[in-house]
Amino acid sequence: MTLRVENLSVRYGAVAAVRDLSFTVEPGEIVGLIGANGAGKSSTLHAIMGAAPIAGGDVSVAGASLRGRNPEDVARSGIALVPEGRRIFAELSVEENLKLGFAARRARGGAAEVLRSVYDLFPIVEEFRRRQAGVLSGGQQQQLAIARALVAEPDVLLLDEPSLGLAPAIVDVVFAALTAIRDRGLAVLLVEQRAQRTVALADRSHVLANGELRLTLSPKDANDTETLVAAYFS
Amino acid sequence: MMLAILNIDWQTLTDATALGAIYALMAVGIGLVFGVLRLVNFAYGQLVMAGAFALALASQWGWPIWAAIVLCFAVVLVLSVLMDRLVFRPLRTQSPAIMLVATFAVAYLLESVALLWFGPLGKIASSFGTLNQPVTISGVDIRKITIVAIVVAAACLIALTLLLERTTVGLYMRASSMDFDTARLLGVRANRVIATAVLISGALAAVVAIMLTVQTPLVTPDFALRDTIIVLAGVVLGGMNRPVPATLGGFAIGFASGILGGALPTNQSQYLPTFLFTAVIVVLLVRPGGLFARSNAVERV
Q1: Tell me, what's the ipTM?
Q2: Rounded-to-integer distance, Cα B229 and Cα A209, Å
Q3: Which of A222, B28, B53, B277 is 20 to 30 A away from residue A158, measured at CA?
Q4: Distance between CA atoms of A21 and B29, rounded to whole angstroms?
Q5: pLDDT surpassing 90 at residue A232
């Protein structure tokens, strides 16, 4: 299913966080959303999830508007978020964290197969499934957060800075998983600070500044440092 | 005075355990709603009061015990749901201070309604009078209600633990009380979790109403008010944020209250709250996080 963001505006009081933003994410593609802190990347994700008020424009999945829906309804309509800072339930076990992901799952039955496919993608999550989630390392928690989003069997996966605070080797694991997730036919929207890696991975990347879309880059721009820097500081 | 405190017999000890058990149930009822709403429901005592009046009316009408129990549960559960729908739900996005004041308003409203309908002198709930009779166990006279209260409280706590640990809705409730926003983003239905917590909390209030009316058959509009304040102190004493310490806090303060009540000479029993709350203040000065809070608590991420 296609995620469509049309002329989206998000305001916090008098402050405009996102202005007139439009883009789409088709099934089987990764779209990157990059930009400096405060550019409006996270606000866009929150608006899609119903966790931030939409001041103007619309967000729709497969043609159905999500505007005005609360977060649990958005999650139950096939959109999963991997939140910034992972937001793992530290006091619950890894397995219990995964079970929470089932809350938004629309299909019934076949839970074991879903878990199997997620474990195949993230073997570390299966290995540590009986442990308390809080004792996992940051990279392991990030894998758990993505696994938790995937057990809902979403059509659209939103990720808010999944590489934040991770060692480069772990970022490789996470980004490799994103490629595999794309190949399963999900529409993936990746919000990132690591511009170069995102541009290289995503089918296209939108550069945000001051809540506005400034530039769209394709993977071949990944090594064009000048363009990247110019886009960031435009 | 100290001699009086040392003069504790088995009967006082079992009575204190029973009171601790009842207060533990109240602490769980308050703690469950606090967990998902971050709201201290000051109107909890009035739910118990409403249940107690239902029992008093049932005994006035000569209803059999089972019907009295059904009426008590029905009244308390309906009131709990109304409280959630009319007060908690519309105010959920407001600040905790506003919700707190709203529960004060609900508490006074319910008490005033009881005052209007039943008068200040109250009614007698006598259906369970036989439970006040003693049984003799190896030479010690123990009132039946003491045993019933301990058994029922233990059964409720075990059932609740199983619900929270073994069922999906229990997992949702635990997750919601740790991080409600993230739970909702994962598709956990906020209203359903809150409604479940409110219903369980209400059911516990009904159980408490039955136990307390056995101990104190005279039901007045301020019934259970003092107990609620003591339990709230106990919950803070144990550690508000976590269910097990909050429950232990409720038990501890009930137990202490029972021991002090039995140990103090009758003509000095009015000093009981003074001793109790002095102890609470001292404990909180020494351990601000609560008596049973873990010192190496895992930081929530």
Answers
A1: 0.92
A2: 54
A3: A222
A4: 47
A5: no
How many other C-beta atoms are found inside a 10 Å radius of the C-beta of residue A104?
27
Strand pairing partners for A9? Answer: A56
CB–CB contacts below 8 A, A to B? 74
Q: Is pLDDT larger for residue B276 or for residue B103?
A: B103
Q: Are A25 and A156 contacting, i.e. CB atoms less than 8 angstroms apart?
A: yes
Cα gap A221→B65, rounded to integer Å:
79
- φ, ψ dihedrals at B285, nearest 5°: -65, -40
Residue A191 in 3-state DSSP?
A: strand
Q: H or E element: which one contains B215?
A: helix B190-215
The predicted structure's pLDDT at residue B174: 93
Inform me whether the C-beta atom of residue A197 falls under 8 Å from chain B C-beta atoms. no
Interatomic CA distance for residues A91 and A211, integer angstroms: 36
Residues 6+ positions from B295 with CB-CB distance below 8 Å: B289
Q: How far apart are CA B200 and CA B209, in angstroms?
A: 14
Q: Which of B199, B247, B196, B193 is nearest to B27 (CA)?
A: B247
Order of strands, sheet of A156-160, starting from the edge strand that comes earlier in the sequence: A79-82, A156-160, A187-192, A29-34, A204-209, A212-217
Residue B298 predicted with pLDDT over 60: no
Biggest CA pair distance of chain A: 51
**Residue A15, exposed/middle/buried by CB under 10 A (0-12, 13-18, 19+)?**
exposed
Tokens describing residue B245: 């310490």
Host H or E run for residue B72:
helix B65-83
Q: Regarding the domain delimited by B10-286, which CATH topology (the fold level of the hierarchy) does it fall under?
A: ABC transporter involved in vitamin B12 uptake, BtuC (1.10.3470)
User: What is the Cα–Cα distance from A103 to B171, expressed in whole angstroms?
Assistant: 10
Task: Give the largest CA-CA distance in chain B.
Answer: 60
- Nearest CA to A49 out of A15, A87, A14 is that of A87
User: Which residue in the set A89, A101, A103 is minimally distant from B178, CB to CB?
Assistant: A89
Q: Which residue of chain A has the CA closest to B177?
A: A89
Cβ-contact B249, B234 below 8 angstroms = yes
Q: What Å distances lie between residue B84 and B88, B106, B191, B216, B231, CA to CA? A: 5, 11, 10, 29, 21
Torsion angles phi and psi, residue A146, rounded to 5: -70, -40
Q: How many helices (H) and strands (E) does chain A have?
A: 9, 10
- Residues of A in Cβ contact (< 8 Å) with B185: 49, 51, 71-72, 75, 81, 83, 87
CB contact under 8 A, B188 and A100: yes
Cβ atoms of A208 and A222 closer than 8 Å: no
Contact B187 A141 (CB under 8 A): no
Residue A118: φ, ψ to 5°: -70, -40
The rounded mean pLDDT for chain A is 93
Q: Which two tokens stand for residue A127?
A: 């290995």
Mean pLDDT within B9-23 = 90
Specify whether the CB–CB gap between A35 and A208 falls below 8 A: yes
> Rounded to an integer, what distance in angstroms lies between the CA atom of residue B288 and that of residue B37?
22
Specify the amino acid at residue B93: T
